[in-house]
Specification:
With about 450 residues, the protein is α/β, with parallel strands linked by helices. The protein is built from ten helices and 35 strands. The structure holds uridine-diphosphate-N-acetylglucosamine and magnesium ion.
Length: about 450
């Protein structure tokens, strides 16, 4: 059955005290709204985001993620049911079911959504997702009769007995699209907040024989982010789970609590990650590779047996072949490093390709930027680049070629040749001794 997703994200997020819309704040390197959507990857229907405050920025970010995402604008924030009605046009003719998620609730799991779908197929017309709250605080309370959900009472409208209920509303709902839109449009705002509550659905539906049930998830899945403190807490929760998953998948983390993952980090079995390593988005580390201490990786691919760091930085487009070595204080960006090739010390390799078996000496820099354009450096296989070579791109170094240390290479070096691009050395006989003597005499004279 087609299932559409409607992500509510029009909230102001005022408690974030931010110029950035709340759902664009990042968790594990991805905006919050992306986390909620990632649990719905298996669903085949439309994806609609209800935007309000800062809507243009959200639209842009969502477009970048998936240009098929649709948007509904809620200009006045009149409540969750009202937010749903704003999506009527975007969902028109979509058919099937629609799942409502919140953009600021990142930990919802695909398994939980499947459990809700199972309830739908076994006879429930509307399924709300509830959880047993350790501290029910201001959540909406779920009032059940047998396995039926009779009503949901918002905290502000709840009686003392209702407030004693610990089964709470997560806000996630699954229902037939037509039913959902029709009932949401019928919701009134006669309540303490004067808002149009989506939580009125069970009562409205019951009057026409619609059956509402509750699926249950862990409270952890419903963690919503309202403040910077919530965001930091969510980050800690995410990191802890990512570390545990890595260890369970056969990755060695020497000091797990010091390793920081992104939402999409992939580490192969028998990869080793040493202390204080940060993974930005888009990193894959294959089996048996080792990431040494204090390294920072983003948008990089590290193949089997490669060693990175300590103190290395891999930026987007860094592509390391098997057994490559990237050593201390080396930065690699948009560059392929061939099998077994080494860039071991103090170098910048950007917009470059290095063949197999080449050695790049300490302090080598690919001068890729002329202030306006970026240019490429092509280095062949079994090349030896002498220490402190400046490779002024665009430039090519052929297979089995060399450059002399300290060269500024501005012309291609053909295969098998040596490029020397530096002043010729001249030794001035006895000059140093004479110069020292003169300088020391001057200093003694100064002291008097
Ligand atoms: C809502 C539920 C409550 C539940 C709680 C769980 C209602 C009436 N109440 O309350 O039962 O326990 O979530 O966290 O549904 N939003 C819009 N447009 C609006 C209003 C809200 O897009 O006009 C979005 C918000 O950005 C947010 C979500 O809907 O992502 C929930 O809104 P929020 O104001 O946090 O609802 P709560 O009062 O927390
Ligand atoms: Mg809330």
């Amino acid at each position: 059955m087609t299932t559409n997703v409607l992500l509510l994200a029009a909230g102001e997020g005022s408690r974030m005290l931010s110029d950035t819309p709340k759902v664009l704040h990042e968790l594990a390197g991805a905006p919050l709204f992306q986390h909620a959507l990632s649990a719905t990857a298996d669903l085949d229907g439309r994806r609609v985001i209800v935007i309000g405050h800062g809507g243009d920025a959200v639209r842009k970010a969502a477009d970048k993620l998936d240009e098929r995402i649709l948007f509904a604008e809620q200009t006045k924030r009149l409540g969750t049911a009202h937010a749903v009605t704003t999506a009527a046009e975007a969902l028109a003719g979509a058919g099937g079911d629609t799942l409502i998620l919140y953009g600021d609730t990142p930990f919802i799991r695909a398994e939980t959504i499947r459990a809700m779908q199972d309830m739908r197929s076994s006879g429930a017309d509307i399924v709300f997702l509830g959880f047993e709250a350790a501290d029910p605080a201001r959540y909406g309370r779920l009032v059940k009769d047998g396995d039926r959900l009779v009503k949901i009472v918002e905290y502000a409208d709840a009686s003392m007995e209702e407030r004693a209920i610990t089964l709470c509303n997560s806000g996630v709902v699954l229902a037939e699209t037509e039913t959902l839109l029709r009932l949401a449009a019928a919701v009134g705002n006669n309540n303490a907040a004067g808002e149009y509550y989506l939580t009125d659905l069970p009562v409205l539906g019951a009057s026409e024989g619609i059956v509402t049930k509750v699926a249950i998830c862990d409270e952890a899945e419903t963690l919503g982010i309202n403040s910077r403190a919530d965001l930091a807490e969510a980050e800690a929760v995410f990191q802890q789970a990512a570390r545990t998953a890595a260890l369970e998948n056969g990755v060695t983390l020497v000091a797990p609590e010091t390793v920081h993952f992104a939402h999409d980090t992939v580490l192969g079995r028998d990869a080793v990650v040493e202390q204080f390593v940060v993974f930005g988005p888009g990193v894959t580390v294959e089996s048996g590779a080792r990431i040494r201490a204090f390294s920072h990786l983003e948008g990089a691919h590290v193949s089997r047996g490669a060693i990175v760091g300590p103190y290395a930085r891999l930026r987007p487009g860094a592509e390391l072949s098997n057994d490559a070595r990237i050593g201390n204080f080396v930065e690699v960006k948009n560059a392929q490093i061939g099998e077994g090739s080494k860039v071991n010390h103090l170098s910048y390799i950007g917009d470059a390709a290095i063949g197999d078996g080449s050695n790049i000496g300490a302090g080598t820099i690919t001068c890729n930027y002329d202030g306006v354009f970026k240019h490429r450096t092509e280095i062949g296989k079994d090349v030896f680049i002498g220490s402190s070579t400046m490779l002024v791109a665009p430039v090519r170094i052929g297979d089995e070629a060399m450059t002399a240390s300290g060269s500024v290479i501005t012309k291609d070096v053909p295969a098998g040749d040596m490029g020397v691009g530096r002043g010729r050395q001249e030794n001035k006989n006895g000059f140093a001794r004479k110069l020292f003597a003169r300088l020391r005499a001057a200093k003694a004279a100064e002291k008097g």
